[in-house]
């Protein structure tokens, strides 16, 4: 029983690997970028676990910008994927421009979030003792 | 009407030179002392003590205790700075003196030497009680000690006491070697009263009883709880000496030789004269009187006093304390003056260091709490006048532009934002221009 499950796992991994190598290069680039963004976010979460959540606003801005850019990159990948029948009519460049706009919009939200949480850290740091 | 007011003005003008010869803030030693005696022969039997007071510049005014013209105040001004009551058997004072006027006298900051003897009247007991000293209730009791008596005495009522308080301020720098001779009544102090102090205590073998009758029950006052001479320094720095023996101040005991029973040392002269002289110097503010200048504080590196401090400022604090030497103000030298930075409880308590010229200083960091603080110096050393100084100063938190611009703990997050930006640019190039 054990032998067969490990063999199944190996077969599964090999089939995934071969299927993935068939994807077009531009999608692979997007995937790499998503992995990079999520990895950066995970590093920040690990750092916060070590030193504590002060200053929380900086933590939020760092993590959310990484996570947000990862999510928007995934949206781009969905739109650009030729096998996706919904978005056949959309030109690839238009999708990219939409993606850029979304990134910019997300940064604007983060500016507001950052300054809002920064003012709350003033009062928390002076009343801490 | 006009004539009356003019004559009052004229009389007060006459009194003006009289008023300048009294103790003042700049010259705290007493000048004019009223001496109440119940027998004028005390002037000659205690001449050494009174002579030493006169030679130090005191203006002694001898009066009988029932003199009908006795007055401590006239027109609201006190006529004397010090009072010596050597009248243990007086039931009532003459003139306008009574225990209430004597209590007012001490309340105004003036000093008192009160002595009982083998008998103490109720009046003297009442005055002593006002000062926190309890004489033995039995009016015929005296202090008896069967092991601390001088060899010359027969019935052990003359005591040779050497249990003196250890204080250079009260008893002078030189140690009193010979025992102090005492014959009189015992008194005790309430242990919760922190203003009174035993200067001369009885030995553990002493007790208070009637020497001529047999004891029917154990005596109430025994051992070291018996005080022979006590002092009190009131909260307004008035000083009171209460002695159970008038003979302690007499010429006979000043001059007599002492050899304590059971001790090989024979002294040519008892310690009485040195004891009485040093005690009178202390009680009339020739010694142990402190004066403080204003508290000075400023930030490190500045000289002006700011109106408000910020939390975590570095500040320097200094105060000047002088000691009266009997003639002039000398710098006070001590290593136990402390300052508190106080708001409901002391946040900072530091011992001040002195430059031996009277300036006491220290520096510390303002604590990380904002509010209205006080610099407080509360100095209560045994035998010295109490110093109670305070100065209020507010402390504010950081202004919004006084915080650090970039928080070091957040550098990874700043880095992450910038790498995300860089990653986005790189990704865009690669994605758009790959083939």
UniProtKB/TrEMBL annotation, chain A:
<dbReference type="GO" id="GO:0006487">
    <property type="term" value="P:protein N-linked glycosylation"/>
</dbReference>
<comment type="pathway">
    <text>Protein modification; protein glycosylation.</text>
</comment>
<comment type="subunit">
    <text>Component of the oligosaccharyltransferase (OST) complex.</text>
</comment>
<keyword id="KW-0472">Membrane</keyword>
<dbReference type="Pfam" id="PF02109">
    <property type="entry name" value="DAD"/>
</dbReference>
<dbReference type="InterPro" id="IPR003038">
    <property type="entry name" value="DAD/Ost2"/>
</dbReference>
<keyword id="KW-0256">Endoplasmic reticulum</keyword>
<keyword id="KW-1133">Transmembrane helix</keyword>
<protein>
    <recommendedName>
        <fullName>Dolichyl-diphosphooligosaccharide--protein glycosyltransferase subunit DAD1</fullName>
    </recommendedName>
</protein>
<keyword id="KW-0812">Transmembrane</keyword>
<feature type="transmembrane region" description="Helical">
    <location>
        <begin position="30"/>
        <end position="50"/>
    </location>
</feature>
<dbReference type="GO" id="GO:0008250">
    <property type="term" value="C:oligosaccharyltransferase complex"/>
</dbReference>
<feature type="transmembrane region" description="Helical">
    <location>
        <begin position="56"/>
        <end position="78"/>
    </location>
</feature>
<keyword id="KW-0053">Apoptosis</keyword>
<comment type="function">
    <text>Subunit of the oligosaccharyl transferase (OST) complex that catalyzes the initial transfer of a defined glycan (Glc(3)Man(9)GlcNAc(2) in eukaryotes) from the lipid carrier dolichol-pyrophosphate to an asparagine residue within an Asn-X-Ser/Thr consensus motif in nascent polypeptide chains, the first step in protein N-glycosylation. N-glycosylation occurs cotranslationally and the complex associates with the Sec61 complex at the channel-forming translocon complex that mediates protein translocation across the endoplasmic reticulum (ER). All subunits are required for a maximal enzyme activity.</text>
</comment>
<comment type="similarity">
    <text>Belongs to the DAD/OST2 family.</text>
</comment>
From TrEMBL, chain B:
<comment type="function">
    <text>Subunit of the oligosaccharyl transferase (OST) complex that catalyzes the initial transfer of a defined glycan (Glc(3)Man(9)GlcNAc(2) in eukaryotes) from the lipid carrier dolichol-pyrophosphate to an asparagine residue within an Asn-X-Ser/Thr consensus motif in nascent polypeptide chains, the first step in protein N-glycosylation. N-glycosylation occurs cotranslationally and the complex associates with the Sec61 complex at the channel-forming translocon complex that mediates protein translocation across the endoplasmic reticulum (ER).</text>
</comment>
<keyword id="KW-1133">Transmembrane helix</keyword>
<feature type="domain" description="OST48 N-terminal">
    <location>
        <begin position="32"/>
        <end position="283"/>
    </location>
</feature>
<comment type="subunit">
    <text>Component of the oligosaccharyltransferase (OST) complex.</text>
</comment>
<dbReference type="InterPro" id="IPR005013">
    <property type="entry name" value="DDOST_48_kDa_subunit"/>
</dbReference>
<feature type="domain" description="OST48 middle">
    <location>
        <begin position="297"/>
        <end position="435"/>
    </location>
</feature>
<feature type="signal peptide">
    <location>
        <begin position="1"/>
        <end position="24"/>
    </location>
</feature>
<keyword id="KW-0472">Membrane</keyword>
<keyword id="KW-0256">Endoplasmic reticulum</keyword>
<comment type="similarity">
    <text>Belongs to the DDOST 48 kDa subunit family.</text>
</comment>
<dbReference type="InterPro" id="IPR055459">
    <property type="entry name" value="OST48_MD"/>
</dbReference>
<keyword id="KW-0732">Signal</keyword>
<dbReference type="Pfam" id="PF23358">
    <property type="entry name" value="OST48_MD"/>
</dbReference>
<dbReference type="Pfam" id="PF03345">
    <property type="entry name" value="OST48_N"/>
</dbReference>
<comment type="pathway">
    <text>Protein modification; protein glycosylation.</text>
</comment>
<protein>
    <recommendedName>
        <fullName>Dolichyl-diphosphooligosaccharide--protein glycosyltransferase 48 kDa subunit</fullName>
    </recommendedName>
</protein>
<dbReference type="InterPro" id="IPR055457">
    <property type="entry name" value="OST48_N"/>
</dbReference>
<keyword id="KW-0812">Transmembrane</keyword>
<feature type="transmembrane region" description="Helical">
    <location>
        <begin position="411"/>
        <end position="433"/>
    </location>
</feature>
